[in-house]
Amino acid sequence: MKSLRNSQDVDEILSRIDLLSPERPRRWGKMSAHQVVCHINDAFRLYTGVITVAKPGFPYPSKLLKWGALLVPVRWPRGFKTVPEVDQELGGTRPVEFKQDVADLKGRIISFTQIPESFVWPSHPYLGVMSGSEWMRLGYLHTDHHLRQFGA
Fold it and tell me: Is pLDDT above 90 for 132?
């Protein structure tokens, strides 16, 4: 299974990010490519506890949802609502300068992959308590999902 613990998978993700441009059309959803760059960056900030989010308004976290999201070999459904703090039209980071935002994202992904095993991970708002390996898997899958959104 692909994961940001695997250097080949990291290289793949970083190369695919380079395919994005502000003009690249989306295949689904509402976000622009620039908004997606900021959204993914915000997600990694959430994953490492740099930002926190309010708990969702329905019964989460779910072990079944975590199992399905991280281990079932199917692509994620489109249109899953994110938390406001990483929604670029609500509380997420606003796009500023595309090249700089891309550089920030790539740097954050590289830093994320270097987090030691001893790191105390925050609880995910939907998936609950997760191991480092699960966070690395989520980081890959979430980024992959949005890169596919733009054909990258």
Answer: yes
- The model carries a pTM of 0.92
In angstroms, what CA-CA distances link 112 with 65, 96, 132?
23, 22, 10
Examine residue 85 and state whether it is found in any structural domain, yes or no.
yes
Residue 1 located in a structural domain:
no
Q: Mean pLDDT over residues 81-109, rounded?
A: 91
Domain count, the chain: 1
- Beta pairing partners, 124: 128
CATH of the domain at 68: 1.20.120
Domain that holds residue 59: 7-149
Mean pLDDT for 53-76 is 77
Q: Is residue 121 part of a domain?
A: yes
Assess if residue 2 is contained within a domain.
Answer: no
| Closest by Cα among 118, 116, 146 to 42 | 146
Q: What is the CB neighbour count within 10 angstroms for residue 121?
A: 15
% the chain with pLDDT above 70: 97
CA nearest to 29, candidates 70, 90, 82, 68 = 82
Q: What is the DSSP string of 47-109?
A: HTTSS--PPPSSS---HHHHHHHHHSSSPPPTTPPPPGGG-TTTTSPPP--HHHHHHHHHHHH
